[in-house]
Design goal:
This protein is an alpha/beta fold and 505 residues long. The strands form five sheets. Strands 1, 2, 9, 10, 11, 12, 13, 14, 15, 16, 17, 19, 20 and 21 form a 14-stranded mixed sheet that branches. A four-stranded parallel sheet has the order 4-3-5-6, with helices on both faces. It has a three-stranded antiparallel sheet with strand order 7-8-18. Helix 2 packs across helix 3. The radius of gyration is 23 Å and the shape is globular. Bound molecules: adenosine monophosphate. The site of adenosine monophosphate has 19 residues, from strand 13, strand 20 and strand 21.
Amino acid sequence: MDIIETIDGHALRHPDKLAHIWRENTLTYAQLSQWSDRLANYITQKFCGDRSPVIVYGHKQNEMLVSFLGCVKAGHAYIPISSSLPTDRISAIVESSKSKLMICIDDISSDLIDNEVLDCKALSDIFNCGCELPPDKSHRVKEDDVYYIIYTSGSTGKPKGVQITLQNLHSFIKWAHTLGNLPSRKDHVFLNTAPFSFDLSVMDLYLSLYTGSTLFSTDEKMIADIRGLFAFLNKSNATVCVCTPSFADMCLADRSFHNGLLPSLQCFLFCGETLMNKTAEELQIRFPNAQVVNLYGPTEATVSVTAVTIDHDVCTHISPLPVGISKSDCEILIMDSVGQPVQEGEHGEIVIAGDSVSIGYYGNTEMTNKCFFNWHGRRAYRTGDEGYLKGPMLYYCGRLDFQIKLNGYRIEIEDIENNIRRLDGVANATVVPSVVGGKITHLVAFVIPCDMDIDRTLKGTIAFKQKLKAFLPEYMIPRKIVFMDRFPTNTNGKIDRKALAREVK
Ligand code: AMP
């Protein structure tokens, strides 16, 4: 099995089949295959011998998919960056990537460009160059080469790049395309709800392209307007919905989210955060023909490594819900604080070993050595998640550190704190999640200003949040800012986060 060959094979057999739909824009398999060939030729000629990763900057445009494929056909890993990120964040990724080429499908600030750029016009010229020569297959990304790099929130305040090889991706697809009732039909329509810069999107993008199906993309603007979103969904003919539980909860809050809206839907694939029993129950009532599958895994282990179908029986008898059984080429270990496996049923850190595990963080040996290790000859990753096993079934119990999930987004609390500390006039900052019914609803930042006369009114906090937007994406900005003169401390003299958490209740 080879993902690139498979996609090109679909283009030969079904050239006019739609590979992607986003708003009014469509992309056929023939266009995807031919245009990515032409882009690969261009990249190979221009960057002969160089294998540095290529940044692909945009949102849900067809050119994103073509660029991903064009890069790997030319032997370069790609780094998807969402155009909704603030300049400072993009700059940190560009700097860390050492990339020599940026494909900018959306407009980008000229401050960020210090190397070759292909904009939409240049891409269009390449796609329409008329060249029929297929790119040399020997240049392609090979099994052990990095296929993509996805940047996630890093506790230092700088994002870290997770490197996923072609072998990691193959291992994921081979397993994931057998989940739920996916194999029963070939002509699926996969609903995409996450930006391409988040690894959840790898599930819908590559399952769709691998099976010769159609990817139907939503975008951030659509999602912000639920009625508009539903109108799009209704036209999608979606058979598989890949989303976070937060996305489903947002949709379920509206009564019109039921099988009348998505009559062809057969399967929900959930990953990224805790799936609550009440969410699964409600989906079973409103979508009686659709299976609900709960998957678990971090970006560092290629999207997900465990899965379980949540049927009515599981939903009514087990709470919290299990997160699944491991794919066969991986092993789930539960380890104690000194890295020794614990007995079945005991709690500990979830460690993943096997073919899904990344080779490490790009250009960051220190973090790679901290989180990745060799377990009996297999790559292993310490997730920082707490869990336990009951037989082969994994249960997730939360985090052992300050990483959280808010509306499906992975966030290191320390990433926000470090960026608040970068603002002028801030002496210190602590961020605490507000939790309602076991789910994080928003973040509260407690800030000690250098100047006690800081404007603490609503106007002052709005201005404060505005300044923070220069460093952090919208989803990481705390909803509430509380200025204080000093933080409460515990008996060890450390900031008492529990006391602060009580204040946000
Ligand atoms: P990401 O790298 O963005 O996919 O985030 C990975 C983290 O999301 C994991 O380490 C878990 O903390 C959390 N996560 C992923 N899947 C699940 C799940 N099914 N249930 C609960 N938490 C999950």
